[in-house]
Design goal:
A six-stranded antiparallel sheet has the order 9-13-12-11-10-14, with no helix packed on it. A four-stranded antiparallel sheet has the order 2-5-1-6. It is globular and about 50 Å long. The chain is an alpha+beta fold and 190 residues long. Helices cover 19% and strands 37% of the residues. The protein contains four helices and 14 strands.
């Protein structure tokens, strides 16, 4: 008795290569940018803590002057975003948080951030290096940082008084951070 339906065993092994790589990408934890409601980044980070989801909310210290006093605030370095490390198959753990709008991506598909960039950013900021937000730039001189804790990152070269400052941009979320660097640690990017 023969059946007209083909079984899984009858198919060529090459047909499953794409399916296996797709399944592996769904199971592998990667860094994603979670877009949040305005001024809800710290609330989202607290919710991610409660759900035991690995996340990263870089902050910087800013002194704000009010009528009668000065206040030191810890503000998000990338306003509107919290970085999460999660497998795509577990993305609902992030998306079910009320203040999370979406994971940043293209054509309805979440786009992962480069692991190398995230690790460099995390390690540099954990060492207490100063950074502050900077407007996203699309024009300017591209440079590569060759030495120091930010080595390997590329950005736009700017001058601040007598020192150099490099604006490092994360193109996926169109946000930038300005960092102070030594003249010897900068080379043109090709």
């Amino acid at each position: 008795m023969t059946s007209s339906r083909a079984t899984i065993l009858d198919r060529e092994p090459t047909e499953y290569v794409g399916a296996v790589s797709l399944a592996a990408s769904l199971l592998e934890p990667r860094w994603y940018a979670a877009y949040t409601c305005a001024n809800h980044e710290k609330h989202v980070a607290a919710e991610l803590d409660a759900r035991t989801v690995e996340h990263f909310l870089p902050v910087y210290s800013s002194i704000r002057r009010w009528k009668d006093r000065r206040v030191r605030l810890n503000l998000p370095l990338f306003p509107g975003y919290v970085f999460v490390r999660v497998a795509l198959c577990n993305r609902l753990r992030v998306l079910q948080i009320p203040s999370v709008v979406q994971l940043v991506g293209f054509n309805g598909k979440s786009a992962a951030l480069p692991d190398e960039e995230m690790e460099i950013l995390r390690s540099c900021l954990s060492q207490g290096l100063r950074a502050k937000p900077h407007p996203f730039l699309t024009v300017g001189r591209q440079v590569r940082i060759t030495g120091g804790p930010f080595a390997g990152l590329e950005g736009v070269l700017k001058r601040k008084k007598s020192s150099l400052r490099v604006v490092v941009s994360l193109g996926l979320i169109q946000r930038s951070v300005a960092v102070d660097v030594d003249v010897a640690d900068v080379a043109p990017a090709f």
